[in-house]
Amino acid sequence: MRRPQQLDAVDGGTNAILTRGYQQEMLEESLNKNIIIALDTGSGKTHIAILRIKIELDREPNKISWFLAPTVALCEQQKKAIQAHLPTPVGLISGALEPNQWKDANLWSKVLRDHRVMVSTPQVLLDALRHGYILLGRDISLLVFDEAHHAVDNHPYNRIMQEFYFDLPARPQSALAPTSSSSENVDHQYLRPMALGLTASPIYGGNVVKAFETIESNLNCVIRAPRQNREELAKFVHRPSFRHALYSPPDSLNPQFSTNLAALDYLLSTMDIEKDPQVISLRKQLSNLTKGTAEYQRLDQKLSAVILKESSFTHKGLRDFARSAGEICEDLGSWAADWYVWEVYEHAKRAANPFANIISTWRDTEKAYLLSLLNTLVLSPVSYHPDDILEECSDKVRVLTQCLISEKTDTEANDESYSGLIFVQRRDTVLALSHVLSHHPATSASFRVGCLLGSSDSMHRHSFLDITRHLLRDLQRETLDDFREGEKNVIVSTSVAEEGIDIQACGSVIRWDPPANMASWAQSRGRARRKRSTYTGLFPNGGHQQHDVAKWIKLEAEMVALYNDPSRDQILEQEDEDVPDDPEDDLKFQVESTGALLTLHSAVAHLNHFCAVIPNTSHADNRPIYDIDPPDLPEGWHSFENRSRSSLQRYTGPYGCRVTLPKLLPVPFQHFEVERKYPNKTSAYRHVAFVAYRALYHAGLLNENLLPLTSVVEPGLEEEVKELLKEVEQRAGMANVSIQMDPWVAGGSDVWFRSSIAFGNLNPISLLTQSNTMSLVGADGPVLYRPGHPPVQAVVQNTRQINLSSLDLVEAQAYTRRLFWTINGARMQWNNFDFSYLFLPGAGPATGTDVWAERRAWNFEKVSAAGKEDQGDIIANAQAFGEKYNFPDSINVVFRQSGFGRPFKFLRWRSEPLSELEEERLLLFYRGMKDIEITYPLLVVEPYPARTNLLIPTLPPDPNVLVSPKIIFNLIPALSSIALVSPEEIEYAFLLPSFLRSTAMALTVDSFRTNLLAQTPLYGLPTQLLTVALTAPVSQERVNYQRLETLGDTVLKLVCGIQLLAEYPLWHEGYLTRKKDHSVSNARLAKEDIARGLFAWIIRDRMLGKKWVPSYLSVKGKVPESESKPEQNKNRQPLSTKVLADVVESLIGAAYLHGGIDLGYECAKFFDLGLKWQPLPERLASMLLRVEKHENVPPQLAYVEAIIGYNFNHKLLLVEALTHSSYEQDLRTMSYERLEFLGDSVLDMVVTDYLYHAPGKNYSPGHMHLRKSAVVNAHILAFICLNSSLEVSAGMPQYSAEEGIVISQAVDTIHLWQCLLHSSPGILMDQKHTFRRFEDRRVEITEALERGDAFPWAALTRLQAPKFFSDMVESLIGAVYLDSSGDFEVIRGVLRKLGTLTILERIVRDGIDILHPVSRLSVWASKYGRELEYKYNKEKGNISCTIKLDGKEEIQVTEIYRGHASQEEVKYMAAEEIIQRFKLREPDVIFAMNTKAKEKKKQRVSRLSFVVQ
Asked: Which of 319, 803, 911, 1142 is deepest in the core (most CB within 10 A)?
């Protein structure tokens, strides 16, 4: 015997696997050939697989190993085991893990790149192979099949092998050796991976030889069990001792009687299928259809089938209910049946309540009918008296209780705790049996019973018996945890516990029902694997089940003998045996670029998935509809007098089929069919699905992986966007791009330009720049708003190129320094003359001397003598200056110290002595200085107004705000200094920074126009408009791009939508929306911004008043102090991705303002956005050319045209706008979703344009959004739809004695919503109920819209209108826009006729409060620090909303519960009542600022100042 070895990868680790001899034997054999390891449960098959994977990882470092398990639970269990023992990334994928995320090829590439081992359910791998995400030969070196006996028929195990494995070349024998990769140069690309199967029972039963051949052929493996180490295996595998217990079967002559079941059976006998709501609805629908159409034939077949099989929800459900109760009565006894019927009855009554939502799939009509039947039942709850339970339980229950007690007694005699599993076939029996054992007098005290039903018993989904899910009290996980911890010692389970769940070894397994097959027998037996364990079967006296078990025992012996037979080796080791071809496997379609494969077996699932991801509308079923040819039943069978089954002739083929896809698809792709030539219905279904799916691929509706285009157009998944994020988003939401361009730099040129600048009455001053400035005269010049002064407009003229001499340059540099040093010297360097711009007084260099030149000369001589030349001749000591010039009053600027700190405005000299208080304050002002001597005269000064951007107008004083008194200071002259500059130069010093800011912005815009817009239609955009479009909010300028961005965003979505509609005529609305969202996303726009370098012209630097410094040529890229960070590169500057995108949209908005929608299109085209661009008129014309001429149109079209005030040139557009996706008549058109997609953008465009231009409003983006939301939301659009109608004459001839035959004067009202084309009873019900609610609230809503002060949000919400009402309005707008070739005046006319524009105009004109009540309440609570809480309570068919403020209940509103809409309704109503009670309706509440902080700021007065009386 071999010595035990440990897994090398984890030697010495706590998780090392100790391999037994038989495990090593199986491992070594798996290295040389594909094998299926057949070992009992608990023998360590998974350990062998982990060892095999470890070796494969070393042998094939560039491929992965894939572990397959049939259930999610088993996948999770095996993933943990592999991860615990292998030091390598192990991935887990299952359909339960957000399956939509696995539709991205890039995600699969990352998985293959980052993991060496993958664990998944087989369907996941099969789908990935079919879509070409994974190539079996290229990517996978080892396949492990857990529970390998499943690999038969159409199980995914078998499909993987048949569709992908056998087409690959076989591995050469030399490539199988463990060291082959190092000893031989074998190309492992695109070879079959190795295969390893694991099973406890390789077959289900029958002929052992044939079964072995099937599974071995399917998996290309040989079934193996240990031969050399059988004795060792026997030490570790403890097979239970088999026992059987006999019970007396029910007496057919004297069966158990259940009173509750009898009542249920009587109800069934009285039911009439013709009264079922489904039959009534189908008959009504059929009467409205045209005989001979496909829809009529389909509905006719459905009605006949429902009547024939009595398969309606209620009839089939109650029949199934009675059958389950009958089986329980026969199997467990009448007590269990009575309990089961009572429990299901009680739960069903609660679920059938029309206001309950326990089972969301039950329709209201089904609930009402079911409840009416249940209410006729007279049932009784069971008695829990021990005698009653004993008397009314079956003999089988008696035998089971005896077995349990006996097994428990034997186990405890060996000092072990008892744990047992009872396997039951039917889920309802599990529930009943566990309840019986929990209350049976013989077991209730000794056994703690739990249930396991599995997670998906799909046969009960969407059926009446789905209600039994609610009888289960504990979750599966909770039950298993309790069983492991001993809280429960018995579990009653369906087959879910046979395999796939990590359940501890039990001492006792009991089969309540005999196993269905050999595999079930072996699997359930494997759960009893303690040393002293038992496996007990319950068998009826005289039954055949014992014979079946004996047969399985014999088969198992044959099976073991067969896979231990050495003579099989030579035969089975032959590679590449021909696998018999299945005729159904012949038809395949493969995409060459990806390897994605479409087969007959996958076509139906693929087509179902394609339809499932199409955006669904209410009351529309997007699932494909298959019509078999010929039909199963004769047409009209449901109306035959003789409807017996015997009258039907059996048809056995051949068959054809027609599949109908959703109306959201173009007409050519709504129907596909195959001729009648296939042997069975399944084959016909598969072939027509194959034909349809292949056609969808060729039409461009699928990607190269044969998947819907979701991942192709969805941002975040597309590789293009991922690259964009790398390029743009260096950190979350930020992009690191070069700083804003310097408008003063002219490429190093020595050329100078001279301009004359004038500010009001000041003498002109000359500006010298190396950038050519523009002349600004009249209204073009910037207006400067200096506090305390009237506005002054700058004039720039006489700009010309000059030759600047060195003497002029030196003079200009000195003069420029003097102008700026006075106010900004603290942040300047005295000897740095390298200014980006220069100034000279008058029209040329200063000549002669004046009084201030003389004073500066005096000061220069004085400071030079003292060696203090750091501030030159500009700053002089105030005491020395006063003594020299006899304390003149011509001083302008005073500094507290020697030329640094805040400048003050000189008021006067003060000779009168200070009061004691004034002297105390003055000394406090100079605190920190020693030996302060107060000398007279003193300087009396006041602060200058805060230096700000003078381009921004000052706000007029608020009469309601107390003005702070003027602050006056006294300064000691000896400690102070003055600026030796003229009053005019001081004025320039204050005005020039803002003027230079304006000039820099103008130069930036001019540079942008020259460099980016030359040779484009956008070159002529006005400078003022471009300036606004390029100015970011962070600049804090008077205007910025936000309003233009809001407008441009709307324009962009419209023009992109039109391009996509025309470019992709076959795309449904879902594809269009995703592609548009991708094209206009911030990430995409930011990429286009960066690609063109647009970011360099975005004006985002800020004019910082107190910290302003002049621009220097030698210091490029200087970031304003408020934005700079030490760690940043000085040539890099953070800029948000949103700003990059916003500027693109603002430029589009500017283009639209200047040149209408056509110039807006040109601007969008300039940025490309990954679309194919054609002028809008051409796009609209191409779409109109595709509209068919159709004469046979519904008569209600004329009514709709009259209601909206527009006559269509292309009537089929109107048909499309009114066609719901549920409509089954073929009018040669799609449903309305594409037109709704267009209409949504058109409506936004009209409303946004109106709000942007609203006279006298200048709405901010937030205000525009609020008002737009009020008139384009689904609630108001539904109201408009419900409120739009037409009165038509409906007079009928009547006889009058006086006048004879006369026409009565009668009028009918045709409502717009009635003109919707649909085939859904649900829509009819929704229309009826919604219109009733509309009539109840019409007056209230109309009054609020026409005369109220607040928008009626709550009342509109209470309409609870389904989405198709608002969809109608938007699709009609889209149809009118297209039919009128994009005429917005026509659209405005339609919107005025419908009332939308009227509502909007009143909102703007009268300042209607449009803030949503919930938002208003939230803003108010946040502003005043109140804790706001909403509490909901559903009770007795009602729902209430309680609002609490600071924990105190303030108000409660209650309404009838009708689903989620009712919850929103009561929330809005409660919020509205709170607002009215607390009088919170203030027009500007949403924009409220923190007034407390503002008040504190206004009240702040320096403690060092005093007020001059």
From this structure: 1142
CB count within 10 Å of CB 1391 equals 27
Three-state secondary structure readout of 212-235: HHHHHHHHCCEEECCCCCHHHHHH
Region 426-450: what's the mean pLDDT? 89
Instruction: With both helix axes pointing from N to C terminus, report the angle between 334-352 and 259-270 in degrees, rounded to the nearest 10.
Output: 50
Question: What gap in Å lies between CA 595 and CA 1108, rounded to an integer?
Answer: 64
The C-alpha atoms of residue 443 and residue 457 are separated, in whole angstroms, by 29
Residue 580 carries which DSSP code? P
**Phi first, then psi: what are they for 557, rounded to 5°?**
-65, -40
Among candidate residues 1170, 1164, 1097, the one with its CA nearest the CA of residue 1135: 1097
CB half-sphere exposure, 538, CA atoms < 13 A:
25
Helix (H, G, I), strand (E, B) or coil at 1357: helix
Question: Residue holding tokens 């004459």?
Answer: 1289
Q: In degrees rounded to 5, what are phi and psi of residue 537?
A: -110, 135
Which token pair is 206? 């029958």
Question: Average pLDDT in the 319-332 region?
Answer: 90
CA angle 573, 576, 579 (to 5 degrees): 110
Q: What is the rounded end-to-end Cα distance, in angstroms, of the chain?
A: 113
For 609-657, how does the pLDDT look when each residue is reduced to its tens digit (9 = 90+)?
Answer: 888 777 776 677 778 889 998 888 888 887 777 676 666 777 888 999 9
pLDDT at residue 1486, as a whole number: 39
Contact call for residues 1125 and 1058 (beta carbons, < 8 A): no
In this structure, are residues 128 and 108 in contact, taking their beta carbons and an 8 Å threshold? yes
Q: How far apart are CA 397 and CA 405, in angstroms?
A: 12
φ/ψ bin of 1136: left (φ > 0), alpha (ψ from -120 to 50), beta (otherwise)? beta
917-945: pLDDT as tens digits: 988 888 888 887 888 888 999 999 998 88
pLDDT(1492) > 50: no
Judge residue 511's burial from the number of C-beta atoms within 10 Å of its C-beta, 0-12 exposed, 13-18 middle, 19 or more buried.
buried
Give the span between the Cα atoms of 457 and 472, in whole angstroms: 13
Predicted local distance difference test score (pLDDT) of residue 1206: 95
- Say if residue 718's pLDDT is above 50: no
CA–CA separation, 46 and 43 (whole Å): 9
Neighbours of 57 (CB within 10 A): 20
Residue 1222 confidence (pLDDT) above 60: yes
The pLDDT score that the predictor gives to residue 346 is: 85
- Reduced 3-state DSSP string for 667-727: HHHCEEEEEEEECCHHHHHHHHHHHHHHHHHHCCCECCCCCECHHHHCCCCCHHHHHHHHH
Supply the pLDDT for residue 2. Answer: 40
Residue 473 near residue 433 (C-beta atoms within 8 A): no
